[in-house]
Structure formats: C-alpha cells, structure tokens
Fold this protein.
Amino acid sequence: MAEARLGHPATQEVPFRGGGFRPRPVRYVGVTVFVIVILILEWGTRAGWISNLTLPRPSDVALTLWRLAETGLLWDHLLPSLGRFAVGSAMGATAGIALGIIIGLFSLARAGLVPVVAAIFPIPKIALLPLFVIWFGIGEGSKYALIALGTFTPTVVATYGAVDNVDRTLIRMGQSFGLSWASIVRKIVLPGALPGILSGLRISLAIAIILLTAAEMIGARYGIGAYVLEAGSLYDLERLFAGVTILSVLGVAVNWLLAKIEARVLAWRS
Amino acid sequence: MELRLDGIRHAYGETNVLDGISLDIPSGRIVCVIGPSGCGKSTLLRLIGGLERPTEGQVIQLGTPPTGSLNPLTYIFQDFALLPWRTVAGNVSLVLEDHPVSRSERSDIIADVLTRTGLIEFRDALPKNLSGGMKQRVAIARALAVRPAGWLMDEPLSALDAQTRELLMDDLVGLWAREPFTAIYVTHNLAEAVRLGHKIVVLSRRPGRIREVIEVRAPLEARKTADPNLEAHQRRLWALIRDEAEAADRELVGG
C-alpha cells in the first residue's frame, strides 16, 4: 500500500460482472438456422457425401411439394386432415377445459376424477385405435375420438392446475365484496386461469397433430398421414419428406396462431 | 353502525391465535390494531368481515347499515387485490355488477369515486401500468363505490414506499374529514397508527390478547408527521410492544 500512503492510490475501473441470464428476442436467427441446415443438406446430397438412400435432396422435396400443390392433390390430402384436426382437437379441448374447471372448483370431482385422468394420461392413445374403430367405425368417428382423447387429458391437467394457481387473494376479494359464486367463477377464476389453459393448449395441439397422423395411417385414403404412410411403404423419400414438412408447417402455424391469441387476450400480463 | 367484538377466541387446529378479544368499534371512528407479526391481526380482520368464523365468541353489528350501503363491511387489502385483466374503471365496476344498480347509475358511481380519488384520467389504464400508490387508490375507489359502513383495512400501506405512504395517509385523512367513516385499521407501523387512529389497540404475541387500548385525542386533520405529541404516543407504543416484537422475531415459523 505504498501508493496509498503517498496519496496516489492505484486507480482501476470496477470490472463489470452483471449481464446475461436474460433471454431476449433475436430476429431472423431462426430462419437463418433453417436456411443453413437446408443448404448443407442440399450441398451434401449433391456432392454425394450424403447418399440418396439416407436423405432426399431438399430441392427435390420442394419440387414434390410444388407438384402436389399444382395437381391439387395437396388439398385432397390437407383439407380432410385439417378437418379431422379441427373437429377432434376442438372436442377434446372443450371437454378438457370443462372437466378441468369442474375438477378445479369442486373437491368431490377432484377426489373422484384426478386418479382417473392420471390413469388415462400415460396410455399411448394410438394403442386404443383398434378399439375406437370397433366403437366408432372405420370412418371419421374413430379418428375424431382418437384426436379428442389425446388432446383431452393434457388439457384437463393443465386446466385444473391453472384454476389452482388463480390468486386466492383475488377470490377472497370477490367474496368480501359479496360477489355471487357464478360471478367469482366467471370474472375471477376463468380469466385468472386463462394463461395456464392457453399454455396447456400448446402441448395438447401438438399431441393432436401427432395423433392425426397416426389415425390417418389406418383406414384413410386421403390425409397427410395416409400420404406419408404410402410414401414410406414405397420408400419414396421425397414424398415422405414432403408430407413431414406439411405436418411440421401445420405445427408451426398452430403455435403461431396460439401466440397471436395469447398476445391479444393476455395483454394485461406484465 | 357500530361493531362489537364479544369474547373472540380463534384457533387453527391446536394453536390459539386470538384469545379473549372484546372490543367496541364506535361509529365514525378509526380503530388501529397493532401488534408483533404473527399476533393474529389479519385473522381478527377476517373474522370481523365474515371471511372466517371465530372458534368462540361473536362479531356483532349494532344498528343497521345506512340505506344505500351496498357492502356494509368492505376490505382494503395490503396487496391491493385488483384484477389485472380489468381497467381501473373495470375494477370498480366489478363490485357493482352484482348489485341492483342500473347501467347509468353504475357509470355515475364509477365516475364519482374515480374523481374523489384523483383517478379519473386513468380510468382506462390497466393495473400493470400503475404505481403501487395508484393501485391502492383504485382499491380505495372500489371500496368507496359500495358505500361501506365499516372499512376493514389490512395493512393497506405496508406494500408502499415511505413517501407514497405519506401521500396516501393524507388522502385517507381527507376522505375521513369529508365524511367520517368507521374503520378497523390493522398495521405494524406505529407512525400510521398514531396518525390515523382515534383508538389504538395493542395486541400481545400469539395468542393475541388485548394488552392495552390507547386513545389519541388530537383531531385527525390536525395531526402532522413530526408532531411531538404523536411521537410521545409512538414511543409509548414501542415500549409496549418492543419485547414482544423481539420475542416474536426469534420464534420459529410454522411450529
């Protein structure tokens, strides 16, 4: 400490050690990663260090998709799939939200139904498809049922969890102002549970897309699942990947739509 | 309307939290309840407002609440308890929607209470955009809207910073001076108690019993922050609860 005694302490800036641990949106990076991966695959398949038995050439997949759209066959497959996805997941999500709210509100329903839901949850729903075919027929009914059951269980679990997480002080406030039970449920519990329900729907709808494909692999002439199955059994990689691309785009579209809905109805969140 | 607490005892399981509480809350007076943390202050308030049932004893209303009072016993909460998805006006509207009040009457009441609390220009703001002080003003406006006969205030200023607390104390004194209301004001802040209380009830450590009731005679409007008279009261209160507060501080929680 010789300098200090002389009145000339060594000066040094305090080193910065904060920062990081804060995710922030970075634009265009997601798209760039996609483009780079596709370019590498294109290069590899053209140069030959990826054999055409392993992966199809991305440009060929794109061409297949283009032809599919041009011939109108795309719509023949996509529209029935979208219909099944919409009907099945709407049934499953509606029933799931309704039952989840009932479980969240009534102790008796909770005691009776939570174990049942827990028992259904881990069953691979695809395993039940033959059963559904007997129950609901080989047509649309069994497909709706499979997708509905698949979306139902995660929605129930997410919904009653969301109801449990509603701020109790707000409910207490409602009671202290003499609000009716129905008002408390409609104006406090439901809006308070909405964020949890919507994030549960993200998972449920992804499961619905998986089950849609599975359902269409049995007893469907049209549908993305049928298209993928047929391509797979012929080992037609271009068509297989074209089908898979469509499913992936469907998933991204559903997610984007949900994000839009969240941004709109959950604008009150800080 | 007066409130009377008659021999109240309250227990959670085996633990007594309140014991032998008998107290009169006269009409148009503010009664402050202070005590060390965990002495059952907030429980007492929940009992008075009917959010919980006492194990023993009863809470009695003397006289009928004035006509036009939509919710005779109304709470102000420490954490404001505003619905984050409703605007300022929407939060006030919430507590009127279940009452037989016509749509135009409702918007008149909302405009009136928001004007009285200085919030009228923020009527369409969401709670997330308001400061803590503004949020508590919204809660006060919401309470005013149902014209309570008794205010049950659970540490209403404890979540606010010191300056905002001063401002809101002035607001409360102003509201009381315009139209004296009956209130039970639970706090752990002695300065708030001597500033706002006509009567200060000191509770002991758990199980909470009434240790002393102090009357502060100076009129509310005349009380100022660094008033030596009030400070004397405050010192006396501190002397009363210091040891208890120390002991409460060293207690294991949830035992």
The mean pLDDT of chain B is 89.
